[in-house]
Design goal:
By secondary structure, the chain is α/β, with parallel strands linked by helices. It is 48% helix and 17% strand. The protein is built from nine helices and ten strands. A hairpin with a 2-residue loop joins strand 7 and strand 8. Bound molecules: adenosine-5'-diphosphate (ADP) and adenosine monophosphate.
């Protein structure tokens, strides 16, 4: 199955994608992760997008669609895909259809993570990840098992990172971008009867279970 996880920043897309990767061997395609890797490696793309990302604005459609297109080339068709943070505009949604068609793939389901905006600032400002393996944590909602010293549950690393753009000002811009440019792509998929809505305010495990139900319901098609 090829699915899109759609929801505002902090909705839990990355958290849930990581679980689907572990359970089903699917592949997570996060344009945010790809762009952060480009920034870190100081590639020409990375240098171009750093300030845009820090401000919480959207990078151009051409850049992100090219990243997705490049990733798909190397992926066998049997591997199910999870799009996380892409598409984010109407143009990207159309470009994604074209890219998938080139690989004889299609979107099987769009899972909308519905969340209260008020909760998102708290989720995002408390977010951190393992610097070594990238596992995601939260100061209040998901601390590592070992907190003194703080140690990654997955790889044992003692180093953790916070994103440069996980501050309140950037979060407000990212939410406004979501409302203005990303939420309006839902009708594009609703018209094709592809959207399932999941309560993203529920406990993380419950959200996973709801997503699993959607996959069971539509996976056999
Ligand atoms: P996104 O990828 O949509 O931006 P993340 O998956 O990174 O969001 O989640 C943002 C933060 O909120 C993370 O620190 C994560 O641990 C936490 N989080 C994710 N899902 C939930 C949930 N259902 N309840 C509480 N906190 C959550
Ligand atoms: P994310 O990791 O999904 O929260 O994305 C972090 C930042 O990367 C966003 O605020 C944008 O600046 C940029 N970005 C990621 N994905 C996209 C996309 N599909 N379109 C445009 N910009 C993106």
């Amino acid at each position: 199955m090829n699915i899109i996880l759609l929801g505002p920043p902090g909705a839990g897309k990355g958290t849930q994608a990581a679980r689907l990767v572990e359970r089903h061997g699917m592949r997570q395609l996060s344009t945010g992760d790809m762009l952060r890797a480009a920034v870190k490696a100081e590639t020409p793309t990375g240098l171009k997008v750093k300030a845009i990302m820090d401000a919480g604005e959207l990078v151009s459609d051409e850049i992100v669609s090219a990243l997705i297109s490049d990733e798909l080339v190397a992926l066998p068709q049997t591997v199910g895909l999870i799009f996380d943070g892409y598409p984010r505009t109407q143009a990207q949604a159309q470009q994604l259809d074209q890219i998938l068609a080139q690989h004889r793939r299609k979107i099987d389901r769009v899972i909308e993570l519905a969340v209260d905006e008020d909760a998102l600032v708290e989720r995002i400002t408390g977010r951190f990840t393992c610097a070594h393996c990238g596992a995601g944590y939260h100061e209040k909602f998901k601390l590592p098992r070992n907190t003194d010293p703080m140690k990654c549950d997955h790889c044992g690393s003692l180093d953790f990172n916070r994103r440069d753009d996980d501050n309140e000002e950037s979060v407000r811009t990212r939410m406004a971008e979501y409302r203005a440019k990303t939420a309006p792509i839902l009708p594009f998929y609703e018209a094709r009867e592809l959207v399932s809505r999941v309560d993203g305010m529920a406990d993380m495990d419950e959200v996973t279970e709801e997503i699993e139900q959607v996959l069971r319901q539509y996976g056999a098609e």
